[in-house]
Specification:
The complex is a heterodimer. Chain A is mainly beta. Chain A has no helices and eleven strands. Chain A has strands at residues 3-7, 10-12, 18-25, 34-39, 46-51, 58-60, 68-73, 78-83, 92-99, 109-112, 116-120. In chain B, strands 2, 4, 5, 6, 9, 10 and 11 form a seven-stranded mixed sheet that branches. In chain B, 36% of the residues are buried. The chains are: A mainly beta, B mainly beta.
């Protein structure tokens, strides 16, 4: 059974940093791209970032480019999102998603975690 | 960036109704269009990938169609468990975008 468990969310002040993590199991982590998708309270889904199977390709939404960094540790079957210079508009539930393919292009999320809530407020 | 526009943003329907949700891309995305269902308090779930391929376990009353810029999700006979929010998502390239969602409510 595929499992994705996010952690690391919490309350953080604007301008500060936070790292969220996603520990996975139940599939060959090193074979698939991984993705972060967020959802502000009461709003829709927003794609945040993707990383290819070997970490060689990383993509970001314009709204987070230059502030967020996605990474993965295939030995630990884990995905990370380092978030710097956080803004109130970054407040959201952050979902970790397993991609269906080694890269993001032509792909989709076929398994989702339950999310970790990041709140940016003073 | 490719913009995805869903319509309507919400609809009210009764059990047994036929429901149609549309998704329009700002450029040709061929068939790289996926649909997700999200129920309140839950993570999204994949319904349909590559425009029309139903995910394993998804009831056959769900149907996806379209190509290029215009896509449709149809529920042939709405069931109580189908009341949820539906999102389209394009993956023509590695910079994904989601539609804003369509909330299907009980009439």
């Amino acid at each position: 059974e595929v499992q994705l468990v996010e952690s690391g969310g919490g309350l953080v002040q604007p301008g500060r940093s936070l790292r969220v993590s996603c520990v996975t199991s139940g599939f060959s982590f090193e074979d698939y791209a991984m993705h972060w998708v967020r959802q502000p309270p009461g709003k829709g889904l927003e794609w945040v970032s993707s990383i290819s199977w070997n970490g060689g390709n990383m993509d970001y939404a314009d709204s987070v480019k230059g502030r967020f960094t996605i990474s993965r540790d295939n030995a630990k079957t884990s995905l990370y999102l380092q978030m710097n210079s956080l803004r109130p508009e970054d407040t959201a539930l952050y979902y970790c998603g397993k991609g269906a393919k080694p890269h993001g292009s032509g792909s989709y999320v076929d398994n989702w975690g339950q999310g970790t809530l990041v709140t940016v407020s003073s | 960036d490719i913009q995805m526009t869903q319509s309507p943003s919400s609809l009210s329907a009764s059990v047994g109704d036929r429901v149609t949700v549309t998704c329009r891309a700002s450029q040709n995305i061929f068939n790289y269009l996926n649909w997700y269902q999200q129920k309140p308090g839950e993570a999204p779930e994949l319904l349909i990938c590559a425009t029309s391929s139903l995910q394993s376990g998804v009831p056959s009353r769900f149907n996806g169609s379209g190509s290029g810029t215009d896509f449709t999700l149809t529920i042939s006979s709405l069931q109580p468990e189908d009341f949820a929010t539906y999102y389209c998502q394009q993956s023509y390239n590695s910079l994904w975008t989601f539609g804003q969602g369509t909330k299907v409510e009980i009439k």
